[in-house]
Specification:
Helices cover about 15% and strands about 15% of the residues. By secondary structure, the protein is an alpha/beta fold. It is elongated. The protein starts with 12 loop residues before the first helix and ends in a 13-residue tail after the last strand.
């Protein structure tokens, strides 16, 4: 089946429809994803933050927002600090005797304008 966009002398449909609206791309919060199985490379009992993840090559830079997902298994007791955790990841980290700490939570407070 051949799709023809030519409409004779009439103004084409894609030019008749107004091009307005809102695009959330520039305001979206992007997170770099790290699975729990990738945390196995760290020593038992160590503190793992965004800086350590960056040094290990798991995220692009120390300024990245990081979300830890629960894919894989964790056998070490780690103190993990990240911007977000999935429920499964948090359960696995705490289940091994570690801690899951959220960083950057205070940066969202007070951002909304007061009317």
């Amino acid at each position: 089946m051949l799709l023809s966009l030519y409409e004779g002398g009439q103004m084409p449909l894609f030019r008749r429809i107004p091009k307005r609206g809102f695009n959330n791309k520039q305001f979206a919060r992007r997170f770099e994803i790290v699975n729990v199985s990738a945390l196995e490379r760290f020593e038992d009992g160590s503190q793992v933050g965004v800086e350590q993840l960056s040094e290990a090559g798991l995220v692009l830079g120390a300024r990245s927002r990081v979300k830890i997902l629960g894919d894989g298994e964790l056998t070490k007791r780690l103190q993990v600090a990240a911007h977000k955790f999935s429920k499964a990841a948090e359960e696995k980290i705490v289940g091994c005797g570690g801690t899951a700490t959220r960083v950057g939570a205070e940066e969202r407070k007070g951002r909304r304008k007061q009317a």
